[in-house]
Amino acid sequence: xxxxxxxxxxxxxxxxxxxxxxxxxxxxxxxxxxxxxxxxxxxxxxxxxxxxxxxxxxxxxxxxxxxxxxxxxxxxxxxxxxxxxxxxxxxxxxxxxxxxxxxxxxxxxxxxxxxxxxxxxxxxxxxxxxxxxxxxxxxxxxxxxxxxxxxxxxxxxxxxxxxxxxxxxxxxxxxxxxxxxxxxxxxxxxxxxxxxxxxxxxxxxxxxxxxxxxxxxxxxxxxxxxxxxxxxxxxxxxxxxxxxxxxxxxxxxxxxxxxxxxxxxxxxxxxxxxxxxxxxxxxxxxxxxxxxxxxxxxxxxxxxxxxxxxxxxxxxxxxxxxxxxxxxxxxxxxxxxxxxxxxxxxxxxxxxxxxxxxxxxxxxxxxxxxxxxxxxxxxxxxxxxxxxxxxxxxxxxxxxxxxxxxxxxxxxxxxxxxxxxxxxxxxxxxxxxxxxxxxxxxxxxxxxxxxxxxxxxxxxxxxxxxxxxxx
Length: 471
Fold this sequence. Notes:
By secondary structure, the chain is α+β, with helices and mostly antiparallel strands. The protein is 57% helix and 8% strand. The strands form two sheets. A five-stranded mixed β-sheet has the order 1-5-3-8-7, covered by helices on one side. Strands 4-2-6 form a three-stranded antiparallel β-sheet. The longest helix is centred in the first third of the chain and has 36 residues.
């Protein structure tokens, strides 16, 4: 629910309208009650016009803020359309989640609503009642108007910066970094400290925890990932859509109470079709499930697998890479033909992948109180992530030397950051790159340069980084 509200434009403006109504009703009442007791020094800073002038001011504020709000909405919609057509439809979440845009709209609507609500409390005395001007309320409306004008100027400046592709990619990168921090734990094998010391992970011997030297003990071996037996109960999706997240607490509780092991074989971001398999469950004890247990698993597991109409970064670690690859692929389309943007997108993808290889990309395991594996959640491996970042730019940019050179640099950087066990996906991607270089429409000079770059990837896989080979 929080993630859904975060990317909507209406919650903050709606809250602003509600607060403005409360303030527009309550503040004039306080005005009327304490106006006679107000100190003289404070009166000098408050609105001192007549009731007719107050009504004119409030009417002008309300009318102008409606126009400004309409302009702001129009510019926002135009920006969303530009982002969708020029870069990627999956970037719209980044724009609609922009707190600056939401807050600006909330301020404009709140100012309009407050002025309109206060207007009803201004009395001119023509109807036989005593004339009344809510000085504090009118002054507050003027202050809100000045704040709205300032916000409009800042909003235009913010919008001009946000529609730049560099800003978009930085925003996607930042969101993806936060997703990695939240979902992927760091490896416990000292990889980060080894890199700071300039050592390859496979070159460092495991420490057994020598008290004399103060070295830390070696981490415990990871838990084995259970695989479903042949007679495992097949679990199907309850609804169609994109797998947005899995309710881990509910899934773990079901697995414990049914004394079973549950495997969700589809990753967040996958497209699910109702009635098709999403995983399996099998009894931990080896005894067959009772009919009641089978019915319960078939009912409760699909409820814990939540779907939506679009991909989100709630539990999808690959969503940021998907957005960056979309930008690169769109930039390489014949209608746009902007390889520089594709190169920049690949640079962001390389940074994300280098961060990912330092983290645990294996399946997520949930344990019961006795440290027994109860739930296995599949997550994308390095092969999937690397293919997502490289395959489309390699296909659409096969004739552009700058794109091929950046892909080679990407593989070199990941080869240096990754451990020996992560080399096979890099080697497979390198083979695809070499095939594209050999078969591409390139001249001899470009082909020689790209060949040198692919050789630098081999050197990085071997633990060597020769200066100048990446140029």
